[in-house]
């Protein structure tokens, strides 16, 4: 069957369900124009659309209110332009992060994001979920490295913002708006990023969890770590917690020694710890934000609520992994975290009616943005904060 | 109408916070771009966020537009007042509310100057990274509106990368906090750089950076711009990300010399200021590489002290205003090209300059391709101003042709809105308008800036109620 | 007001954060950029309104904006021209006129000031009553220093050791009458450093107060007399220890249309140039050095006084935050704009307090009076001294005289090793 003009479409199966909602079709566009054509047709026929990349985080968020078409971006997998001299790359949304890294490495460069599931996750998926990795302490998150974007709105309009130069303040930054929008405003079709040279060397200092004071001094050290990660697979009080500090650039070994001094213990290795930047279980997955100086308290609170903790002591952002049992503890944990000046929200969980997001000051404005971009509520409806 | 509005404002604010005296009002007629002027209807100088919100609500009650202004140093006319509106000046809101070094944060009011933040934390080993040339005077609220950069944004990024949260007054007068920690849309990212069209920042939480262990500032003098340009490419090619790479050509050097006696090497066709910072061991290695790369330079100076470093920067940071010493009038342009297109674009600017008999001094952030051509002319000479305008405009065309941008840091404001359709399609601009309409459906917040044609938002969901008179007369479009 | 000079301003705003009134009030009209805009409005035909005159009057004339300006705008000249225009064309309120009358009939004339001296002890007690009559009168009284015994300076103080130079010395009006010990110290320091110091008798005011207030006729008259006095004395260098006087005297050429036959230098500028010859004895004291506007901004003399102070063994110089911002004294400003002057004084006193220094040193008596008064308002005390007094103590190997807001009375002018017969 050919419901959309000239675009490859297949009938959806049970495997294509999004949060238990099975779409009728899966569209496989190959160009921005094809994305636009599909969305235009959907608009005319009032069909609801959920865009998908590598599918690694498709079960995150609430199930869509409805889903007629799954827009699978897998075929938009070209790296369009790598201007090495300008440290810029432009890629289609369906390129996987690993594939992109391979292309960039040929010229000694990288996109300094290290999102989870890098093997399968795509450029579009990384942007849409704003999933951050350990090195965001040094390089920022996806929104900080994105310099240009092409999106397709629910009515099929193709719009760009930004460009292919790093420094650019012309017009609104739609890239920021779409980063982390969870597919609810439109479809991210192409993206342009600023790049960094691959670091000359990398060293990790791996040590048992030190005191809060040592942690603070490592983070603020003039040896300039790129990441300070804590892994605590389970158990209260962080008894089995490990810290790993990454140093990149020239003289990494000497700087790592300096940092080990501060930690008072630890081994220095050129191999990343096996848990580095990973999400291991995401049936029940929470994102914890906290002021960096409260890292140990946040860790303890998460541990007492039964969650495994993995994330950055430097940026104050961690993933909490658990199972359905712990979900009941979310409200209590949130109260504790908010008292620390932090936030807690549920990224992924079976639908149990738990409040996933807590209080969000900007929600009324967010609703207005959603209304303007998607007045028909056809883009991933109901999946995001406040049921947007 | 303004009279009743003024009476309403007076009932809300302290007496001396409402300015209506015509002579006083006129001192607010322009910001750092003097080419565009308009005497504001009323000026208010609120002291608190709550007062800002009250003023905005009154503007809504009367359907009167409002414009926010910080220190009035913007170079695109972003704070150009409205004769029929209220100018909300944040220069009395300049308290540093909180410094939290443990979490590397400071919370400040919008009128605090950029440099004041660094000065407040410098002796405790921290600083605020974005450093526009006007940092001693420009306000952080203005920086947020313009998403200001500065010489060091090559490595450290812009305002948007260093702001963690903003309390804003929305265009309809609500106080809302946009925080990077909150889930949901990145409205903070959209707000920063929106040039006052999405509301007014009233409290800003900025990220503080740790002072680097080592800073090495190098001044390299080259015989020509080409040689300097090659050095820039070689630095980037070597995998070095300096904190800053700045370039000035002979004419700009002459001006800086006249203004601040910066004592750059004599006879230089171009000087390059390269600043390396970070851990000592890393900076040392990069400096060794840099020395090799700059072997073409006829003089290489390394700042040995903070004073020498400041002396090297002084020439660069005062370059814009300094041009006043060598030319009666000038236009400061701000455009961006991909770094690799720099040599070609500079050559093309040279040709334009010759063709029109207009001198152009070049100052630029070479590391990120951000050009600041200073188009010099004598306003006493018949037609010179027009010719300078032509050259200035043609430079922006060059930037667009080369895949760049019409503004790297000064903003679109009122000055460049007419170039927006050259850089963006109608669909792009309409999509940006969706954001505008979400925040400011009545179009009261700094109208006439950024976008070329006034557009009306219409109701949601898209039911049109007859034809608006502006649309009918062709002055506006509806979408 | 010269339109050419006005047009030099490119409206960049770099002057704003250095302007004391902008720092206080944050209003464009009370910033240099705003005042230049007002001047422009006037030049383009707007008459001087009371509002406009108020903003010009509120300018302290500290010239910090001149230092900050990258475009080289001559705000110093512009504001002087503007003040002349305001004086000529603007009708002030009667009460304001009366106060200005008193000040300008009094301060530039040492003899009249001398008559006032016996009443000074009363002034402090009278201040609250005077303030009720007019805030300016109260301010004038509150600032009044307790005065030391009048000290007659000899016409010539001979160099100690080998003679290295011959210089003239300005005694000034306020300095000479209210702070005679500073003049004495200046003469001793110069002599100890190998200068014959020529001090012509019958010197009057140099004209600075009048220049800074737009009274250009009076200014020219006083300037001419000062030039004549020193030309007759036959010196080619005149050393000045009061910053406000020095800056005005350096501009005599512009005021009078001809350069005087001598060079004007500030004491610290001159001593730094001359180089140290005399032995410095240790003075174990922490010093906060305050940049007087008319020294730092108007004359560009910043490094030299610090250098001289640092050259004293055991003395530690501490920098005052916001050092470029005026203390609010600014010549006659604290008399005409008492509230602003008071706010700025408080701000400066707080900044000085953060240094924790024991002694506040400046090259201008007005500044030290102002800051000491503010410090006292804040419920504390700080010792004050002129650069000359500190050097004097070190050169002579004596303790610094105990002078705070209430100076002790101490011996005659040239006690100690430099005393010279007349």
TrEMBL record, chain A:
Keywords: FAD, Flavoprotein. One of its GO terms (molecular function) is FAD binding. InterPro entries: FAD-bd_PCMH, FAD-bd_PCMH-like_sf, FAD-bd_PCMH_sub2, FAD-linked_Oxase-like_C, Oxid_FAD_bind_N. PROSITE patterns: FAD_PCMH. Pfam families: FAD_binding_4 (PF01565). This is FAD-binding protein. It comes from Nonomuraea phyllanthi.
Automatic annotation (TrEMBL), chain C:
Its cofactor is [4Fe-4S] cluster. Keywords: 4Fe-4S, Electron transport, Iron, Iron-sulfur, Metal-binding, Repeat, Transport. Signal peptide: none annotated. Gene3D superfamilies: Alpha-helical ferredoxin (1.10.1060.10). Binds 2 [4Fe-4S] clusters. It catalyses: (R)-lactate + A = pyruvate + AH2; glycolate + A = glyoxylate + AH2. Component of a complex that catalyzes the oxidation of glycolate to glyoxylate. This is Glycolate oxidase iron-sulfur subunit. It comes from Nonomuraea phyllanthi.
